């Protein structure tokens, strides 16, 4: 089965977005001090590693979606990229920092804007029939709601996010998480509403990697957490539940390999 010529732009877009996300993720995971110089936020090691895991999970979703020769598989990750980029740009614009919006932040906002506009334009193109699930998965709908609410709090009420975050967070740094949380909400909503497993699978694998990766990063820096605070237990439980749900829903695909 060949890929339709008019859909090659979607594949090119996903390949470029995956490369950008993977490079950013590797930078944040491997060189946190350098990431703080390149990105529009100053990020201590744990924040850099969590944000790095989130970028690598997005890259995984994009790359897995490129495997099926079907444009429907690309729509969910492109929607996630659009949400991520729009929320990240909005977060930086709403919290420009004490010295205003510098050249680095301006460049990132412009890049996010281009990626968001590009994904939106590609998503507007018709791809044929949809395949909505007869009974949407309520567990995934719950994940989508929780992630979207978290993203809105990080964007609109960063001061509130600072008070409930399980380790030290600044209002400006809240924007670094708004995009990934909103993209996770979009991915989870897509999984809940979609019937085709090959369309669901990229988001499921991405969310499984996200849950496991964030847990590992936090365990590596567990000295930063106060385990007498409920927020700490909520954080660990939420990502453990996300990983467990994603791995559970991936079991049918793993059994048939």
TrEMBL record:
Transmembrane segments: 12-34, 46-66, 73-93, 105-123, 143-167, 173-192, 204-225, 231-250
Keywords linked to the UniProt accession: Membrane, Transmembrane, Transmembrane helix
Name this polypeptide is given: DUF2306 domain-containing protein
Species, as recorded: Caldimonas mangrovi
Lineage summary: Bacteria, Pseudomonadati, Pseudomonadota, Betaproteobacteria, Burkholderiales
């Amino acid at each position: 089965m060949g890929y339709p010529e008019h859909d090659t732009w979607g594949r090119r877009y996903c390949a470029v977005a995956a490369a950008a996300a993977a490079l950013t993720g590797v930078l944040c995971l491997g060189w946190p001090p350098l990431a703080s110089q390149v990105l529009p936020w100053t990020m201590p090691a744990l924040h850099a590693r969590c944000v790095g895991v989130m970028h690598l999970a997005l890259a995984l979703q994009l790359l897995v979606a490129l495997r099926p020769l079907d444009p429907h598989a690309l729509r969910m990750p492109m929607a996630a990229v659009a949400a991520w980029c729009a929320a990240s740009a909005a977060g930086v614009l709403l919290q420009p920092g004490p010295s205003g919006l510098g050249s680095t932040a301006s460049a990132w906002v412009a890049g996010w804007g281009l990626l968001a506009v590009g994904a939106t334009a590609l998503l507007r193109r018709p791809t044929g029939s949809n395949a909505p699930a007869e009974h949407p998965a309520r567990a995934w709908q719950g994940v989508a709601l929780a992630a979207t609410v978290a993203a809105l709090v990080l964007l609109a009420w960063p001061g509130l996010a600072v008070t409930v975050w399980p380790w030290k967070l600044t209002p400006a740094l809240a924007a670094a998480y708004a995009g990934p949380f909103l993209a996770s909400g979009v991915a989870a909503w897509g999984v809940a509403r979609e019937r085709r497993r090959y369309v669901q699978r990229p988001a499921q694998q991405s969310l499984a990697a996200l849950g496991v990766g964030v847990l590992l990063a936090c365990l590596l820096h567990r000295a930063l957490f106060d385990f007498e605070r409920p927020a700490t237990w909520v954080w660990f439980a939420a990502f453990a539940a996300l990983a467990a749900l994603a791995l559970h829903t991936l079991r049918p695909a793993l059994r048939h390999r």
